[in-house]
Amino acid sequence: MILSKHLSLFFLLLTLLSNRVEAADFVVVVNKENPIESLYKSEVKNIFLGKKIFWSDGHGIDVLLQTDGDVHRGFVLEILSKSPRQLSIYWLQELFSGKAMLPKEYPDDQSVKNEVAANPAAIGYIDILQLDDTVRGIQLK
Amino acid sequence: MNRYQGVFCIFLSGLIFLQTITPCQAYNFNEQLSINGFLSQGYIKSSHNNFLSNSLDGSFQLNEFGLTVNSVVNDNLRLGLQLLSRDVGEEGNNDVLLDWAVADYRFQDWLGLRLGKVKLPIGLYNQSRDTDFLRPMAFLPQSIYDENKRSLLVAAMGGSIYGNLSFGNRGNLDYQTYYGKIDFREDSGQSRGMEYLVNTMTRQRGLGPVSDFEADNRYVYGGSLLYSPPLDGLRLGVSYFTGQTDFAFKVGTKDGAARGTNKDLVVLSLEYAQPDWKFAVEYSEFTSDREALGRDIPDGRSQGAYVQLCYHLSEPLALSAVYDVFYADKNDPDGNNLVTHGQPDFLGWRKDFGVVLRWDINNRWIIKAEQHWVDGAALQMPIFNPQGVERLWNYFALKTSFNF
Lengths: 141, 404
Known about the structure:
The complex is a heterodimer.
Chain A: H1 2-17, E1 26-30, E2 38-39, H2 41-48, E3 62-66, H3 70-80, H4 84-96, E4 104-106, H5 109-118, E5 122-127, E6 136-140
Parallel strand pairs in A: 2-6, 3-4, 3-5
Antiparallel strand pairs in A: 1-5, 1-6
Chain B: H1 3-19, E1 28-30, E2 33-47, E3 62-72, E4 77-88, E5 96-108, E6 111-119, H2 150-153, E7 155-166, E8 172-181, H3 189-204, E9 210-228, E10 234-251, E11 254-274, E12 277-292, E13 295-297, E14 301-312, E15 317-327, H4 336-340, E16 349-360, E17 365-375, H5 381-384, E18 392-403
Antiparallel strand pairs in B: 1-2, 2-3, 2-18, 3-4, 4-5, 5-6, 6-7, 7-8, 8-9, 9-10, 10-11, 11-12, 12-13, 12-14, 14-15, 15-16, 16-17, 17-18
């Protein structure tokens, strides 16, 4: 009991020392043919960490990451609870230990929208202000 | 300029060249094939004892080069391999070896099968232990990730069943089991450790010299569970490993035999990571049950644990500290049994405190500088110090790594 209290205080102290950056507003997007309308945050996290690799119809999921920028940082911090650098290292661990290939990276919102619009298996994230009818925004539960 | 300084200069030249070419997308020939890799070169200098290499004089024999090729055949099947060249003291000598090679078939999220040479999931970091870029320090904590046991623990020719079980808002569980055989090299720490033991025994008995030393691993098997609870950043793990290796050699003109049963390695792991810091603690026990020249060696059950904290002073600059403890026999932490056999008690433990500063120059290039202060000389230190070992020693390492 005393140990768990000390551990809690320790983690709280470390958390207070963290200097998180405010997240940008983003929306998770899929192809308009994809029937999924909403996903739990934990499902999105598992998808972008390569733990969930199949859609419910059995087709593979194509994960699209943005290279950097505020939207990327906001998504990675809020959904994956990692810094962009930690996410990069996570995927390199998966790659170099023989578990997976790296997800595709795109430089900006428009290139993500272009790929998602053309690829029924794709999922990505963009600035919520850039959402239009070429792709479909997913509601996060 | 000696051979290793030459290698270092070539490495740095290559690094500068690679900085001028385009990012990693350049190596994705199409959506189905990708080539990636990593390079690292280090320098180690120690006081009082050699560690892994001739480090008392300073050594550049601390490098890894990896080349990884992956090909996606379809949504379910991936083919991949990694070539690895490394040099850590007497081990590796930059021969190019197959690190892993798999046909990876995923039936469902919760069920996959890998056949070929598969990496072994032991603790949190064993599967990525050769990629310096991925960890805060140049050396993983030796109590769990002993460099001398690398050949035994890193990968096996065989198969692995794995998957991820999702429990919705109660987290998810990664599991992996494996069975296979290890292809030992004569220069591996495991072979050299047994050869050192046999040499010591034959010398004590006044027998002839040991020659033609060969290792033949019979099997390894084990598995791991890694639970990610709903608390973001927390991972809890347990892993298990057992293996058996036979050794054959000549003592003078006669055949000799030895057996090493490395059984019941258990590692308990906890990692809690937030964007600016990471805390990790792991605990392990391990039985190295050896028989040599008809005699059962009283090895006992070893015990090890470490605690590590990494804090990012800024995004590219991280400061880490580790305290790492190992006891060769958990029932004899003071090494009293060693004294009764005429050996120093401090061969029974190793207590290592280290600090490191890591600078991520960019997403692909890093530099680390680290200092360790060590009490004790367990974990095969006599192999590197035939002239004798000392209890208190320290080592400094400088290492730079690049990935593409």
